[in-house]
């Protein structure tokens, strides 16, 4: 297995002490595969992704579990070894605009920097390669674009530049955290199509993170549904789309706007996700769940097998058996 996350927990230090942001997350990702992570805002998607590259502030973060990449535990690896891996073997497109493009550097300089650091290219070589990469992400007239500053590009083009930087070293794993959220629907589709093509071209695995289940299920072979820091369902995309078992996954599915539905009648799951540190005991979704029984609040139910390759954290649904 290329990537195995085993029982990952992440705690952050806040004024009042430590709070658990991600709790007992486990999943596998083979080489050359696509995985989607979906869940409402605050469910722990970005914290999980940043953990893979160990990008949390060390002094205020506590991590437990293992993240095996090629069998080596990234959480136990010395920082220096990890630095070599970042950007080269595992690349990330960040949700946080702080990590995005530098407004005072040209596109070419920014892509070139990655190439100089990781591949030791000279300035000229880096520029040539930067233009090739812009070509790869289908930016028209790439050679002249390398002299542009980020503000001279549209949002969609800027996102293509981010992708070019991420694939510069032909990573084996690309983590894309909400790569299309700020874009309009047409551009969104184009960017996902580009990611799909590049994945095939480079032969990398992609983790796509989004709050949009429709988007994730269309892109990825496998989908993880997260709620309040924990996984609640892990299944092939088609299963999540056609026969989700967890009531939360069902809610997300119902919340996808359908083209023939009135926008104003859009379904939203009643209630809201609890803040870390204020999670109810037992299943964190129970207070919002129409199926919840008293037992659901007694203890955190385990992830259990519904069918081969389909895990769900809902004893009520599991006891109903195959529907
Ligand atoms: N550095 C941090 N210190 C303290 N709490 C944090 C930190 N980073 C994230 N959190 C908290 O952890 C929880 C999970 O955050 P995360 O960013 O992973 O959510 P997300 O699923 O990516 O949401 P979104 O869809 O809004 O991006 C949130 O409640 C968030 O406030
Ligand atoms: Mg996020």
From TrEMBL:
Source organism, top-level taxon: Bacteria
One Pfam family this sequence matches:
oligo_HPY
Q: Read off the SUPFAM superfamilies from this record.
A: P-loop containing nucleoside triphosphate hydrolases (SSF52540)
**Per the record's keyword annotation, is Coiled coil included, yes or no?**
no
Q: ABC transporter domain: which residues? A: 3-253
Location, primary (coarse class): membrane
Entry membrane topology: Peripheral membrane protein
Q: Name one GO molecular function term.
A: ATP binding
Q: Tell me the leader sequence span.
A: none
From the Swiss-Prot or TrEMBL record, state where the protein is found.
Cell inner membrane
Is Ubl conjugation a UniProt keyword of this protein? no
Keyword list, A-Z? ATP-binding, Cell membrane, Membrane, Nucleotide-binding, Transport
NCBIfam families (alphabetical): oligo_HPY
Family assignment from sequence similarity: Belongs to the ABC transporter superfamily.
Identification of the protein by name: ABC transporter ATP-binding protein
Q: Which organism is it from?
A: Seohaeicola nanhaiensis
**Organism ancestry:** Bacteria, Pseudomonadati, Pseudomonadota, Alphaproteobacteria, Rhodobacterales
